[in-house]
């Protein structure tokens, strides 16, 4: 038996779970999109099934939902960037380092 769930509704649900731990709406949606897209691509091991692991990590302090990544060092070519992000959400960290808006 299979269950079909609307991806937009699932993304909204997962984002809401993240938001209950204080993660910003933007970062919650980045992480939720990442999990749902993994399922849609047929990689359930990296999909919504991981939500419990994230929740458990936030409850135990392994993941720090309120931590903020910061650029510590960046080479002139931007090929090498050192980012400090203590226990931050991985998908949000990738979005942070990929965005030219974070480069000052």
Mean pLDDT, as a whole number? 81
Report the CATH architecture: Orthogonal Bundle
Strand order of the largest sheet: 1-2
Shape: globular
Got a strand count?
A: 2
Q: What name is given to the CATH topology?
A: Hypothetical Oxidoreductase Yiak, Chain: A, domain 1
How far do the termini sit from each other?
52 Å
The proportion of residues in beta strands is: 5-15%
> SS-based structural class?
mainly alpha
Q: How many domains?
A: 1
CATH class division: Mainly Alpha
Low-confidence stretches: none
Task: Output the CATH homologous superfamily.
Answer: Malate/L-lactate/L-sulpholactate dehydrogenase, four-helix barrel
The ordered H/E elements are HHHEEH
- Main β-sheet description: 2 strands, antiparallel
Percent helix range:
40-55%
Helix count equals 4
Work out the radius of gyration. 15 Å
Write up what this structure looks like:
With 104 residues, the chain is mostly helical. α1 (7-20) crosses α2. The chain has one domain: Hypothetical Oxidoreductase Yiak, Chain: A, domain 1. Helices cover 47% and strands 9% of the residues. It has four helices and two strands; from the N terminus they run αααββα. It has helices spanning 7-20, 25-40, 51-60, 90-98; strands at residues 70-74, 81-84. A two-stranded antiparallel ribbon has the order 1-2.
């Amino acid at each position: 038996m299979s269950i079909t769930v609307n991806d937009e509704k699932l993304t909204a649900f997962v984002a809401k779970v993240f938001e209950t731990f204080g993660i910003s709406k933007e970062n919650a949606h980045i992480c939720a999109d990442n999990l749902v897209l993994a399922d849609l691509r047929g990689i359930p091991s990296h999909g919504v099934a991981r939500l419990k692991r994230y929740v458990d990590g936030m409850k135990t302090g392994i993941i720090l939902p309120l931590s903020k990544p910061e650029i510590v060092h960046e080479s002139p070519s931007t090929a090498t960037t050192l980012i400090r992000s203590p226990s931050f959400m991985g998908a949000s960290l990738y979005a942070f380092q990929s965005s030219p808006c974070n480069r000052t």
